[in-house]
Amino acid sequence: MLNGTVGRPVTHRLPGMSDGLESLLDGQLAYYRARAPEYDEVYGERAFRSLTDLVDELPVGGDVLELACGTGQWTVRLAGRADHLTAVDGAPEMLDIARRRVEAAGLTATFEQRDLFSWRPQARYDTVFFAFWLSHVPPQRFAAFWAAVAGAVRPGGRVVFVDTDAAERLTERAAPGDRATVLRRLKDGSEHEVVKLFHDAAVLAADLAKLGWTAQVDPADGGFIRGVARLTDRSARD
Ligand SMILES: C[S@@+](CC[C@H](N)C(=O)[O-])C[C@H]1O[C@@H](n2cnc3c(N)ncnc32)[C@H](O)[C@@H]1O
């Protein structure tokens, strides 16, 4: 069982998307904190290789900010390409693993623990990167998240992201109700409800356009989408 400070199994109450959103997002972070030691098992060899190729082809450079870095699977690759890399996650357990991975590779990065639902950037970057994070941002927080990201992008900079595509819905267990959430089980048997949106590439690009981004979002092999977004009218936001 998870202890009271790290995880809250979903056994008593399933918070809804409008009812108990804060509680749902707290539970989501608690789930990832508890999952950190077993997280890397998600990357089977084949999936990891195709994702590595995908990430390596993305336009990443200059000062880079990685959001929701997890165990650092991408952090270590980005660190080799960035002038400087800052990696952020809400889970200290994830950050510890990521830090060790980057150090073991003889690379450097700055690690910061932040809750991305209240995060306000203190600096601007040439590239803001996130992998498998956007699908965990609920619709009610989508615009606020992208507004925060806009504040982290230097003029001429870009946002680069990778996530699961709409077809991956079939690989998850939807939670009861219409909350865009799924149920996940950890090795200790505990069950957790997390937000999981399966973005369609074209719909996502259109949604981002409404928020002032020019985004190219494409399906990628292996059940993924890849996106590159730039602020459409930078001057309106600076
Ligand atoms: C699906 S994992 C992605 C990790 C990594 N980017 C990858 O591709 O392997 C989602 C990450 O979001 C982090 N996370 C969850 N809720 C968060 C929050 N509110 N603020 C910051 N990070 C959070 C988790 O700790 C986890 O590392």
Structural key phrases:
single chain; 238 residues; alpha/beta; Rossmann fold; 7-stranded mixed sheet; 3-stranded antiparallel sheet; globular; disordered N terminus; binds S-adenosylmethionine; SAM-dependent_MTases_sf
Quick structural gist:
With 238 residues, the protein is of the alpha/beta class. It has six helices and ten strands. The structure holds S-adenosylmethionine.
* Distance separating the two termini: 48 Å
User: From N to C, what is the helix and strand string?
Assistant: HHEHEHEEHEEEEHEE
Backbone structural class = alpha/beta
Tell me the number of structural domains: 1
Task: Walk me through what this model shows.
The chain contains six helices and ten strands. It is of the alpha/beta class and 238 residues long. It has one domain: Vaccinia Virus protein VP39 (Rossmann fold), CATH 3.40.50. Strand 1, helix 3 and strand 2 form a beta-alpha-beta unit. The radius of gyration is 17 Å and the shape is globular. The protein starts with 20 loop residues before the first helix and ends in a 7-residue tail after the last strand. S-adenosylmethionine binds next to helix 1.
